Amino acid sequence: MLQNQIKKDVERTFQTSAYFRDREVQRALGRVLLAYAQYEPQIGYVQGMNFIAAALLYHAGEVVGFWLFISVIEALNMKEIFRQGLPGVRIHDQALSSLGNKILPEIFSHFVNHSCLIVLGELRHKHRVFHDRVDHECYAQFYTAET
Predict the structure, then answer these.
(1) Are 20 and 136 in contact (CB under 8 A)?
(2) Domain of 130?
(3) What's the CATH code of the domain at 72?
């Protein structure tokens, strides 16, 4: 069942890219995701991980991409985001709210007053929708410009 879910998600990853339509690349991405699920069984595989792993695979290859994936999940405290029930989303939402209120209080209060707050969970979904529609080369430039 896990392998079937990973296979379905891998086939949906950056569909506009010839690179990611290549069957060997798809198999490599599937191996990275399955290896992570086995490496971190309390988390397993969760939909959305495929895009993070794909970007790392594209830039670093399968083996380095796998270890970078682990590093990214750990360094950015993403394990809790991917756990059952998404407990980390609430934690990150609270941190985002705190930072928004501290760093940009006028804008943040404007959002609050107009019920325009975007919680991380919604942002993550919108982010996934966004990069489903953009080819991976453009997406890579977006991430490079964002950091």
Answers:
(1) yes
(2) 2-146
(3) 1.10.8.270
98 HSE (CA, 13 A, CB side): 6
Minimal CA–CA distance to 33: which of 72, 74, 76, 62? Answer: 62
What does each C-alpha distance from 20 to 10, 24, 76, 111, 134 come to in angstroms? 9, 9, 25, 38, 13
- The domain total for the chain is 1
Alpha helices in 14-119 (DSSP H): 18-21, 23-39, 49-60, 62-75, 79-82, 87-103, 105-113
Q: Distance between CA 14 and CA 134 in Å, rounded? A: 7
Surface-to-core class of residue 121, CB atoms within 10 Å of its CB (0-12 exposed, 13-18 middle, 19+ buried): middle
pLDDT tens digits, 53-66: 999 999 999 999 99
pLDDT per position as a tens digit, 87-138: 777 776 777 778 877 888 888 788 778 766 555 444 444 444 444 444 555 5
